[in-house]
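Q: What would this chain look like folded?
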Amino acid sequence: MARHVVEESPSGLLSERRRLQINRFSFGATAGVVAGMALVVGLGAAAVPKSVIVSSLLIVALADNLADSLSIHVYQESERLEPGGAFLATATNFASRLLVSLSFVLLVLALPIRGAVAAALAWGLFLLGLLSWMIARQRGVRPIPEVAKHLLVAVVVIIVAGFIGKWIPALLPIDP
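A: My prediction, written as structure tokens:
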């Protein structure tokens, strides 16, 4: 995850620093964006109260994020990454995902549910597109196909979440 390649040019050190900075937050930010959009859309489709959406976003922002961060840490230790590098990757993954998740919480708190769903989609697709663009530029590949590919996958996840949000409440009776 935090592997890096040294470039041969005089600006190689700067390029390496940029690469490491993007690598540090790309996993957490991507997970936070896609999970945040999916939760807001899915739970919005299920017509649950705002408190349930906010609770779900916070549970994922903390519990699932801690699980992912621990998984990244253990993986990097198994790859024999130096302890400081493994800790930094763990901490930046956790922080980036937490911040992105909290941005979705703020949208849900600030807007009516329909508005929050639309804003979460716009915000999430923008963030994912920007991150994809930055990574493509860093890799030296054409950004548009990379952005389109990542947004397509996110849209599939969002559509599935919306179907689940409509389908499960129709199948299960409302709890008393």
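The mean pLDDT is 86.
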